[in-house]
Amino acid sequence: MNKGFRIAAVASLLASMAVAEPALASTQGSFGSTSTGSVTINASVPGRVRISGLSDVTFSNVDPSSPATNAQNVCVWSNTSTKGYTITATGSGSANAFTLSSGALPPVPYTVEWAPSSGQTSGTGLTAGSVLSGQTSSATNSDCSAGPSASASLVVSMNSSTLQGMTAGVTYNGTLTLVVAPE
Amino acid sequence: MPPSLGAYPGEGKARNIRAGVPRFTLSFLLLAAAIALPQQAFAQKVRVTDLSDVNFGLLSNLQADARRSQNVCLFSNSMGGRYSITATGSGSGSSFTLNDGSHSLPYEVEWSDQSGQTSGTGLAPAVTATGRVSAASQQTCNSGPASSASLTVVLRASSLTQAREGNYSGSLTLLVAAE
């Protein structure tokens, strides 16, 4: 049996800060052999996050007698002062459920875990549509092209009882969407 | 027979002296004035005015360069309106960086000899750019061209996408000198 689904991720573009009132401090030069003027420059950078490095998950020809697990390293970057973020996962099943489907066959569930560090094979279980807060990123670059190459782990699993209830030779598909927001 | 001019050497000598003194004095004065005038009446002077603070506000798109340009009045009374400009930032070592108290955000400075420009020649911190020319005809641009140069400040996307959340500020000082 083939059981595959795609993962989509959306990085939140929420601004989480107010713009500071700029100081008016420009000065004009006087007439002389030299003349000096100055300006004040102000800019506000809002809170931003980015999730990248995601790969599709495919469970192919799995043995139904054992759970199937796929863990992957992901890059999550946050520019807040604490490098904090929240994550919300939604599935493509009914009411955002974490389920795979195959036509008229009954949908089958899967589980999602998240760890705020790379190289993990387990993490905090996510509930579809619920926000998991208090996550912290170690990424120093928005796409992990410098510094740590990954900063989080995504673990998708199907237990053996679910696998045993699935129809052999049929492909099940679904989409998992991850929304990350600054915190 | 009336005497010829040469018959009265005393008289002829006296006439030459009366005619020669004014010519020598005038030439001397003109020469002296020519030497003295460039240092006094034509002292080279410059002035930079009409500078405005640069406010980028909240940068909603960090994946694109943010650019702010303004027209500036730069006047120089030197030959051809020539001047040099040196820009220094408030960052460490006069660098062009903004700061939020904990983190820094680099920016770039561009300068154009013409008003109405949104880009120009990049200036390096504390490095004098020479050979600039002003079209201003009045030191505060109250008459003639209303402005004569463009100042552009750029925040690069490559820096913004790595910047920490915060309110950043800094100052940019422009020193102009006649050439």
Describe the structure.
The complex is a heterodimer of chains A (183) and B (179). Chain A has 183 residues and is mostly beta strands. Chain A has one domain (2-15, 48-182): Sandwich (Immunoglobulin-like), CATH 2.60.40. Chain A is built from 1 helix and 14 strands, in the order E-E-E-E-E-E-E-E-E-E-E-E-H-E-E. Chain A has one helix at 160-164; strands spanning 2-11, 34-45, 49-52, 57-60, 68-78, 84-91, 99-102, 105-109, 111-115, 124-125, 131-136, 152-158, 171-172, 175-182. In chain A, the strands form 3 sheets. In chain A, strands 1, 4, 6, 11, 13 and 14 form a 6-stranded mixed sheet that branches. The two termini of chain A are 41 Å apart. By secondary structure, chain B is an alpha+beta fold. Chain B has 2 domains: 5-39; 46-178, Immunoglobulin-like (Sandwich), CATH 2.60.40. Chain B has helices at residues 9-36, 157-160, and strands spanning 46-49, 54-58, 66-76, 82-89, 97-99, 104-106, 108-112, 121-123, 128-133, 149-155, 166-178. In chain B, the strands form 3 sheets. In chain B, strands 1-3-10-7-8 form a 5-stranded antiparallel sheet. Chain B has a 3-stranded antiparallel sheet with strand order 9-4-11, with no helix packed on it. In chain B, strands 5-6 form a two-stranded antiparallel sheet. In chain B, a hairpin with an 8-residue loop joins strand 7 (108-112) and strand 8 (121-123). The relative contact order of chain B is 0.22. The A-B interface holds A 15-17, 19-20, 22-48, 79-81, 141-142, 182 and B 43-60, 62, 66, 75, 98, 100, 102, 105, 107, 139, 151, 153, 155, 160-178. Strand 2 (34-45) of chain A pairs antiparallel with strand 11 of chain B, so a sheet runs across the interface.
